Amino acid sequence: MAPALTRRAAKERTRKRLITAARDLILSGHETRLAASAVAKRARVAGATFYEHFRSRDDLLKALADDLFDELREKLAKSRREALAAPSNEEKLRQEFQTPLDVLAANPDLFRLSLRVRHYPASPLGDSSRRLSGNTRGDVVEELVARGYPHDSPEERRRLEMIADVHIAATEVLALGYLSGRYPDLNEVADMLVLVTHGTRLARGWRG
Q1: pTM above 0.85, yes or no
Q2: CA torsion angle for 160, 97, 103, 112 (degrees, to 10)?
Q3: Tens of pLDDT along 79-116?
Q4: Cβ distance 42 to 18 under 8 Å?
Q5: Residue range(s) of every CATH 1.10.357 domain in the chain
Q6: CATH number 2.40.30 given to 66-205
Q7: 206: which DSSP letter?
Q8: What is the DSSP track for 75-104?
Q9: Reported CATH class of domain 1-54
Q10: Where in the chain is the domain with CATH 1.10.10.60?
């Protein structure tokens, strides 16, 4: 016979059930119609139970958004750290692009959600998606600095942000192309992203 859950463990399990229910509803395209009652029903708990864990719908969405997008950012950052550890290794650079493609391809609903809510001005999901995008931009900029790109002046930092946006936009657009079936070979997509870096690497020679 399994030991009885402590009150704290039972409460944490219910909280996770509510977050999972909200995640399922949102990833199926219902983020704009999400209500506390709908989440409670899907989690199979009483409506009042929802408010024992979250003050409001937005409080739940903030917890869910942090859970979703922080996990995604960490997966994307891992290959970046490995590439920086071997800056002259072209295969590591290629893997840096392959990894986010693999992650996005394996989580198409989450990827499309992050794109869809990015321009929601008053949504915790939108806030978290924009934070993910901004943090990823900052991560790429710091990688470029570590790779020796000029960065001392405001103009040079601005150029690095442009390069980061080029890399991010190219990755997102080509990942969408893969998910739609337009670009069926994910390895070819990764090769194209590496090719893009050959152009942006010229910025290492820019000064002043």
Answers
A1: no
A2: 50
A3: 777 777 777 788 888 888 888 888 888 888 878 888 88
A4: no
A5: 66-205
A6: no
A7: -
A8: HHHHHHHHHHHSTT-HHHHHHHHHHHHHHH
A9: mainly alpha
A10: 1-54
